[in-house]
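Memo subject: From amino acid sequence to discrete backbone structure tokens
Action wanted: Derive the backbone structure tokens from the amino acid sequence.
How to read it: Take the token row as a discrete description of the fold.
Attached in line: The record itself begins immediately under this heading.
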Amino acid sequence: MQRVDILDANDPRLEDYRDLTDVALRRRIEPAGGLYIAESAKVIARALGAGHRPRSVLTQQKWIDDLAPLLAQHPDVPVYVVGADLAERLTGYAVHRGALAAMHRPEMPPLRDVLREARLVVVLEDIVDHTNVGAIFRACAGLGADAVLVSARCADPLYRRSVRVSMGTVFQVPWTRLPDWDQTRSILHEEGFQIAALALREDAVSLDDFEPTSRVTLLLGAEGDGLTPKALGVADTVVTIPMAGGVDSLNVAAASAVALWALRHPLSAG
């Protein structure tokens, strides 16, 4: 790595790290320059382990030794060392997780490539809350999902908050964007996937009674509105989580964890 000490928050080399608050980032439809921000040494390590390329790193003197082994294979990457006050003025918040890295976004893999070795796949349709997206990726990584597919209007899994909440597991679980629903259904069925939609509907089958095939796709919809009629229309089965205490449903991230826990046992036995 190449250490560069910077004292001026207006230095143009720091442009990738300017205004990284959630409010500022939500105003940007597409991340600038095909980049995303990885925050903390743990998340940066997972991004590097997934083969992602860093463009630069922003850190403070007290954390520089933690970064050296992570960047050993990237000797030409500049590491901008700044003071705590400058880092906060630059990013818009107190940077206390060790480091930020501006990473080059990888190209999205073709859908069939993501599905090739998968048995349990999760689809996120139009989930716009970045915290929920990150939490679902963490559940997928921890509970055995093999891949995640996200709709065109779903929040960016590489958004800073999504990455942070996921603990970097967005780099661990293969994922890609979906085509339209008709094409998605055709591809999933051609690859032998049963499509199960998690939704509240009178004809829904309880997860306790659901009999998955050897390859299952689980559809999850947006908080509040749930899955769209188009998504429900491609499902082979609608499933629901049996609830008690007068509660009809869970937050989508919590629901994903429950459903994945229920599905992974019959799949692993199959």
